Amino acid sequence: MGVAGRSGRGLPAGRAVRLGRSRVHPSDRAHSRPEHRFLINRYGMGFDEITASSLVKIGLDGLPVDEAHSDQPIPVNPAGFVIHSAVHAARDDALCVMHTHSLNGIAVSAQRDGVLPISQQSLFVLAALGYHDYEGVALNDEEKPRLVRDLGRNTFLMLRNHGLLTVGASVADAFLAMYIFEAACAIQVRAMAGGGDLLRIPAPILAGIQAQAAQVTRGLGGALAWPSLLRRLQRHNPGYDR
Ligand SMILES: [Zn+2]
């Protein structure tokens, strides 16, 4: 989670920074799973300031669990949790939900045809992608059933005119799914920038990827890439885990 705010260049963690500079809110189900407690970033903190102990534990209502024992209100963004709480409540397998307002993601979300099959990255996304139409900034509980319906059992959800969302069985999986989602969108924006005809990957190849969807989308390399991302984070932002 902290990686999303780490500064750096070039390497995967550097990519995370660019995600972090857009609005990102990850939420992670806390260990007390049966009680439905979640960890979310403290409202107003930069992603390079967030540490493990600054995360706020909240319930499905979006309210801080520990506020009753605190002298002052704990700042969280309850509106921002509407999306996350809907997914967490509906998907037991979604231990981490990540949502970004990245520029490339929003740009593609505004394109009528959505994600195009023009890169290998896009094939991974298309193998497990849903779309959710924009209903306005003021998200409310009434939108939750449609959000859950549109996500379905997918890993990737494109929020039309709004941004990207991924789910994962771990923070690593959700982050790496977001990394490839954002990459697919960035590639598409660049590929379309010249205005020339695009080569679409043939349907049989896409179908082949879809047949392996579960394997592919869960195998984005979380276990492989995450430890090195954490080591990088430790080098550049020591103390993130305190
Ligand atoms: Zn949003």
Automatic annotation (TrEMBL):
Family statement drawn from the similarity comment of this UniProt entry: Belongs to the aldolase class II family.
GO BP: monosaccharide metabolic process
Recorded GO CC terms: cytoskeleton
InterPro entries noted in UniProt: Aldolase-II_Adducin_sf, Aldolase_II/adducin_N, Aldolase_II/adducin_N_sf
Residues in Class II aldolase/adducin N-terminal domain copies: 15-189
Organism: Lysobacter capsici AZ78
Positions of the UniProt region annotated as Disordered: 1-32
Protein name: Ribulose-5-phosphate 4-epimerase
Molecular functions (GO terms): actin filament binding
